Structure formats: C-alpha cells, structure tokens
Amino acid sequence: KMAAAAGAAAAAGLWSEVNRCGQNGDFARALKSVNKILQINKDDVTALQCKVVCLIQNGNFKEALGVINTHTKVLTSDVIAFEKAYCEYRLNRIESALKTIQSASQQTDKLKELYGQVLYRLERYDDCLAAYRDLIRNSQDEYEEERKTNLSAVVAAQSTWEKVVPEDLGLREATYELCYNSACALIGQGKLNEAMKKLQKAEELCRQSLSEDSDVTEEDIEAELAIIHGQMAYIMQLQGRTEDALQLYNQIIKLKPTDVGLLAVIANNIITINKDQNVFDSKKKVKLTNAEGVEHKLSKKQLQAIEFNKALLAMYTNQADQCRKLSASLQSQSPEHLLPVLIQAAQLCREKQHAKAVGLLQDFADQHPASAAEIKLTMAQLKIAQGSVTKACMILRSIEELQHKPGMVSALVTMYSHEEDIDSAIEVFTQAIQWYQQHQASQTRGANPKSPVHLSLIREAANFKLKHGRKKEAISDLEELWKQNPKDVHTLAQLISAYSLVDPEKAKVLSKHLPSSDTMSLKVDVDALENSHGATYVRKKAGKLTGDNQQKEQGQGEVKKKKKKKKGKLPKNYDPKVTPDPERWLPMRERSYYRGRKKGKKKDQVGKGTQGSTTTGSSELDASRTASSPPTSPRPGSGAAVSATSNVIPPRHQKPAGAPATKKKQQQKKKKGAKGGW
User: What crossing angle do the helices spanning 45-57 and 61-70 adopt, rounded to 10°?
Assistant: First the structure.
C-alpha cells in the first residue's frame, strides 16, 4: 500500500510538471514527464494522448502515428481521431486522413476544419467549398478570417484549374491573402489587367501589415512578397512581356525562397520562355523542379505541365532516349492526354521518321475518337511537310465535325487549287453548303433563312466557279444569292454576265432588273472635275490642249525655258589657256598616246648597279631632246608639256615630273625595310 501511495504521489507530481510545461510551450520537457508516467502505467489513456500531442507539437508526426497504431485498443478512433488524421495529413497520406475523418463517430469542429484541408489537397473543390461555407456559417471565433481566406483559395483554384466562373462571395478584401486569391481567380478568367491591379494592392497591404512588426526585416518582407511577385511575372508572361517576366522571375530565384513549390513553378515558367533557346539555362532550372517535396506542394495539373516541359526540353537538347522515356511515362499516366503522343511524333520527325510519326498518330486517333480531330490536323500538317498535299486533303476531309467550318473549307479549296484539282475544290464547297442547308432546315422547321456564314460560303463558291470558267455551275449559286437579296446589284451583274455566255435571252430578261441610268446618276460638278488638277494633268499628257488652256500651257513652257541652268564645276587644275585633251573621255587604254603600264619600275630601280647609280636613261634627262620632240596634248603627270599658246604650264596647275609624292613613297619604303635590319 505504501508503494502504491508513493507511486500515486510521484504521478501527481509528474502531471503537475506536464501541465506547467504545456502552458509554457516546452513540449520536449513535457514529453519526458509523460514517458515517466507511462512507466508507472503503460495503458494510461490520458498519458498516451498527451504523448501524441507532445510529439505532434515537436513535429514528430511519424512517431506520433506509431504510438497511435501501437495502442489501438486503448486509443480508439473516438478518442484520438483528430490527432491520427492530422498526422496522416502532415505525412502526405491524404487518402488515409480522409478515411480516418469519415470513420469518426462524432464530427467535431476540429475534424471539419481538417476535412476542408484534406478535400482541398485532393482537389475536390466543390465538396471543399461546401465544407468551408458550413464552417463559416456555424462558427464564431477568432479564426473566421482564416476560414474566409481558405474559402477564397478554393474559388481561385476552381477558376484556374476547372475554368469555373467564380461567384461573388462578398468577402471584404482587407488582407493581402484575400487580395492575392482574388487576383488568382481573375487570372483564371483571363482578366489579366484587373488581376495585376489586385496583386499590386496585395503587395501594398502586405508591406503595411509586415512593417508594423519591428522584428520583421526588409528581407523577410521580400520573401513574403515573392509569391505575389511570381504571380505578377506570370501575368507579364501571358501578356507577351517576356523580358520583364524573365527579369522578375530571376529576382525571385536570387532571394532563395524556402517554398520549393514556388521555385518549381518559376523555374518551369522560365523554361517555357526559353523554349529551344538558352537550353543550358533551362537545364539548370529544371533541377529546381526536382526538389524534394515539390509533388506535395503543387496541383496535379501543375506537376503534369512540368513533366511535359521536361520531355520537350529533352527533345530540344537532342536527348532522344530521354524524351521517349518521359513521354511514354506520361502517356501511361494519362492515356487519353494528347500531348505525350504529340511529343513522341515530334521527336520522330526530328529523326526524319515521318511515316512512323503519322502511323503513331493514326493509332492514337483510332483508340481515342474524342481527340481524333486534333490528331488528324497534326497528321495533315506532316503530310504537307512531306509534299503529299492530296493525302493531307483526304485526312482533313475525314474530320466530319470540321468539314463545314469556313476555315477548313478555305484550307481545302486552297490546297486543291494548288494541286489544280478544281472539281474536288467545288465538291468541298458543295458539301459545306449542303450541311448548312440541312442544319438550318432542322432548326427552323422547314423555313429556309440563310445564315451569314451560309451566304458567305455560297458567294465564295460562285466567285470560285466564275474565276475558273465554270459559269454554268455558278448560275445556281448566284440565283440563290439574288433570291435572298434582290437589291444586290453586284450579284445581278454577275448573274447576267454568266447567262450572257449560256443563255443570252435570259441575260436580256434579267438586265431589265438593273437600275436605270437616271437612278444611278451621281451628283457630279463636271466643270469642277474638268478644272481639277488631275484632269488638267491627264489632258496635258494626252496632248489635247485647245484655246486658252493651250496658250496657258505654252506660257508655262516659256517660263520653264527661261530658267537658267547652273554652271558646272570646273576641275581645280583647270587652265583656260590650255587646250583640253580631246581624248579625255576615252579610257586610258584606248588613247593614242598610251604606251602600256610599266610594271615594277621602282622595283627594278632598287638594288641594281653600283651604289648611287640610276637606271634612268640619259636620253630621258636630255632637255634638248625633250624640247625638239613633237608637241602633244597635255597629260596628267607629264613634266613639261608643250602647247600652242604656252611653252610652260604654271606649277599650281600642273604637277612636275619628279613629284614629291613619289619621293615620299620611296622614303616610306626604306623605313619599312629598316625594320628587318641591315
């Protein structure tokens, strides 16, 4: 009895210690006391509960869950349901957490809060929205603002991933979290400018709220703003401002935020901007998408987009095996998704295996009829790239749901025209027009009003037939158009033109429907038109000038004749006393005094004969011989040219024979040779 009493007293002291440590937040010390209590009584339910709570507070979720699973007889689901579900949630065992919550006999407020979080992680947004609405309606405590923030996050997720138009929740956007979630919802709707304004407001509110705390530094504020700035950069990227977006993305990466999900999204967006350029930077960034825990931070669609971009990056970097491996893995995860098979086909095309790529796409189209249209469009593009235009047309015409679309009709007609297959082009028009006739007849219960698209197709068909000389075939289309709009003079004129070659009598009958010349006369001032500048110019050009106008034009011609021409500039060395060379306009080779080019004259003079001697002949230096030579026309560079009026040309008009420039060049040549050493 004394031992039992001593044990009870020790347990009471330990419980006091646990209570005091719990109030102080010292859960590590409280855990030690709880373990001592359990040594006294290993099945104490309260002690086991306290141990689980202490482990959760210390972040030891796995150990806490182990304690719960070990003592299932004592810790039943009614007693420990919330703690067990919370541990599973924090260990990313989301499905298990959902089962634990649903199996609890009593749904407490804590379990409902956790239930909302679990549904959000499972991307069951409709159920999550209903759960949070119920919580907000039936709860009144200090956590109301957090619940509203979570509710706005659910609406933003619906808008972004499920393309659901969000309803107005009537939430007052007093916090930066609410502003941020509202901006995300606007991005999902494509309202980018409004979303940017919301993000700017969120940034302002965030700075205000954090600057009130003296312990928060500027670095802490920038770290908190990183997710807002990341969303701003995403809007810039969507708007085509890729340089601004890239700069902001890189600024966020330099801050080294702890949120691995944010880093993965930013790295992925940079890779999409780089595309097939700057692949080395993309290879560095792709490492951020492989960080531990990323799969628990992002939605399924985000993770899928990252994997797609990894496969594309492998293709751009010529890693064919890696690309095939990633795309095959993606196809096994999402067999109905279109992108994996398109990536595989693109890789095969890069390897010049076009036939294999077309076969791969055809197999996918047969297995997934819902995606057949997009696949066949790709197949047609590949056929066109190979030069098989006719086969491409056959593939396009097999897409029944697009045969009547104006874009498809235009593409087919253009391709058939390129192949000079006019009959097939007309057949495409006919099928499209028949589709609209049947479709409109079924909708209007026998009435036959033509839609603008239908009428446009008929007109294009008629114009095409007229252009290619098929006037007989164009008549029915033109009659249909004129029937719809009898006041259309252009269509009536086309119809008369077509009938004039087929049935002239019918053309005469139809011509009576043309408006008279009186009704078509325009109010034109003939005198003003004739006196206009354009009319005068035409008459002048035609040479039909009469009367006053002719005199006026002649007067203008006299004025033009009186205009003096500017004197041409004379050469700098021009001498009026010297007779110009009559052969100056001829090329040098064709002139009578040309004696051929003396090759290597200076070169021959260097290094020959004794030092100081010259190769110049004495006869060339004989002045008497020069004076007795017959007079010739002055030539540039001649020493003393003789003319009929003057024996000597002034120095400023004519260069002497021994020009200083020649001497200067010889000196420069000697200087160059001096570098090698003598």
Answer: 160
Mean pLDDT of all residues in 235-264: 93
For the chain, the straight-line distance linking the first and the last C-alpha, in angstroms and rounded, comes to: 125
Mean pLDDT of 401-415: 86
User: What pLDDT is stored for residue 192 in this prediction?
Assistant: 94
Q: Residue 98 and residue 121: Cα distance in Å, rounded?
A: 10
Check residue 561 and give its pLDDT. 53
How far is it, in rounded angstroms, from Cα 116 to Cα 105?
Answer: 18
- Which tokens sit at 125? 């947004």
Q: What is the pTM of this model?
A: 0.66
The H or E element containing residue 552 is: helix 547-562
Domains of the chain (ranges; CATH) run: 1-106 (1.25.40.10), 319-402 (1.25.40), 420-442+450-513 (1.25.40.10)
3-state SS track over 402-415: HCCCHHHHHHHHHH
289 has pLDDT over 80: yes
Residues 482, 483, 486: CA angle, nearest 5 degrees: 60
Half-sphere exposure of 428 (CA within 13 A, CB side): 29
- Report residue 498 CA to chain centroid gap: 48
Other residues' Cβ atoms within 10 Å of the Cβ of residue 323: 23
Residue 250: its pLDDT value, please? Answer: 93
Cα–Cα distances in Å, from 417 out to 376, 460, 467?
21, 14, 11
Spatial separation of the C-alpha atoms in residues 198 and 218, rounded to whole Å: 22
List the one residue out of 257, 350, 333, 328 whose CA is nearest residue 297: 257
Torsion of CA 312, 313, 318, 319, to 10 degrees: -90
The C-alpha atoms of residue 515 and residue 421 are separated, in whole angstroms, by 39
* Whole-angstrom distance, CA of residue 415 vs CA of residue 88: 61
Please give the Cα distance from 568 to 440 (Å, whole number).
80
> Predicted confidence band at 172 (pLDDT cuts at 50, 70, 90)?
confident
